[in-house]
Amino acid sequence: MGIIARQSIRGTIATYLGVAIGFVTTFFVLTRFLSSEEIGLARVLIDAATLLVGLAQLGTSSAIIRFFPYFKDEHDTNHHGFFFWTLIVPLVGFALFAGIYILCRQPVESWFGEKSPLFVHYFYLVLPLAFFMLYETVFESNANVLMRIVVPRVVREVVVRIGLLVSYLLYAFSILSMDGFVVSLCGVYAVAALINIVYVCRAGKVHFCPDRAFLMHNTALVRSWSRYTLFLVLSALASVLAPMLSSFFVTAKMGLHYTGIYAIATYIAVMVSIPYRSLNSISSPQLAQSIKDNDRDKTSRLVQQVTNNLLLISGAIFLLIWINIDLIFHLLPNGSTYATARQTIFLLGLSQCLLSGFQFSVTTLSYGKYYAYTLLLSLLLTALGMVCNNYLIPLYGMEGAAWSNLISYAVYFALVVGMVWFKMRVSPFCRTEWQTVCLVVGLLIVNWLWLTYLPISSLWLSSIARTLCLGGILCVVAYKQQLSVEINALLRSVFIQRH
């Protein structure tokens, strides 16, 4: 995949460096020094800000990738004023939705006040947090279309995580009060946004001057962007809210204590989908270009490559996490508190495998002329999630929330894949993907049989033995069966260079 492979590998390295920092933060700082309620507060504040960002950007992040090929000019770093509008549109959106957010104070207090009054207390600090997160995201998207994903990825995954770690430690050792801690969260994202802004301005050599003449001569393009923006505002209400529904429902119905436990479970499960972030960031501009050129063969190949690689990688990560889940809880400070979320992690991990494997199909549909269908599907996802969470959480607690995620995503991605094939004649499926699924499921069954019929008393020895044996089988079979041509080629190139 050329530049896609190189950039995504570098981005993934940066991402996993951030994961290492996040691992230390989550498992050796948060769980040791903060109560589950305080962890829950930090999580729900960031989730609320993320939701506001999704609405306030007015679809800017997706529009940047989709429309940049139409503004792009190899001889003009101003690119017909493209980057000017990436500043103005989200600013207007933030002003609009910040006003709506303030007007919603009373309903929020009514819904969260009884079980989670601490969230209500910090209601207004969500606004500055969301503002800085907004422009960090916008400038990261600007860097992506310029094929410069690594530094913004380092900012998101490393700089932000180090800043959060410092904030947690300052609060843990009573250097910051609770008020100071929440303010410091805003400061971390302010620094991240500033770094991205400076980087794009210098590395990308872009300018932020409007080009009204270009827009006057391309009114059809302006109308298309406007319709796309209106569509994405409505779509964001569903698609951005959907992944956070469980967190909000757990907070409202069970309290911040359970939100904290659920947050730790989510942190573990999200590691499954981390490779998707890098590969999607660098593949999306390529996808947008192939769709613009109406090159169906190139689009199909790209979608199948990305889907196939992500299913294999995410499946492998999920297998390794589940093999070592008991060891993870053993190492976790206050692990017995969070071990209650064991089955929750399994269900959330399956959800992340679905997301990692098939979210690129959603991107494919949204960049084509049938993007309006993603709104209907996103609304369905949100409605299904709300119904499932409302019904299952009172019955099964956190596991009910995890089941809601899995059921909603399974239905959603099945419909998305069907729509992409029916409307665009593009399918993410190929022979190797089914082999990958069968391999991972088979190894999960072997892991269960091993624990049931060949238990080893030493937790460390059991985890190491199963990791080496089952992980080794996965690697050997994947390589011999060429489940990923790109990964095999990468391994061969590394091996040849070293020898």
Spatial extent as radius of gyration: 23 Å
> Ranges with pLDDT <50 over ≥5 residues?
none
Residues in helices, as a percent range: over 70%
How far is the N terminus from the C terminus? 24 Å
Strand content: under 5%
Instruction: Tally the helices.
Output: 23
- By secondary-structure content and strand pairing, the structural class works out as mainly alpha
Average pLDDT figure: 82
The count of β-strands is: 0
The major pleated sheet works out as: none
The coarse silhouette is globular
Question: What pattern of helices and strands is seen along the backbone?
Answer: HHHHHHHHHHHHHHHHHHHHHHH
Number of domains: 2
Can you describe this structure?
The longest helix has 31 residues, at 3-33. It is globular and about 75 Å long. The chain is mainly alpha-helical. It has 23 helices and no strands. It folds into two domains: 1-240, no CATH class; 245-427, no CATH class. The protein has helices spanning 3-33, 36-56, 60-71, 82-103, 105-112, 117-121, 126-145, 150-172, 178-203, 212-216, 219-239, 245-254, 256-270, 274-292, 296-323, 325-331, 335-338, 342-367, 372-396, 398-424, 431-453, 459-480, 485-498. The protein starts with a helix and ends with a helix. 83% of the residues lie in helices and 0% in strands.
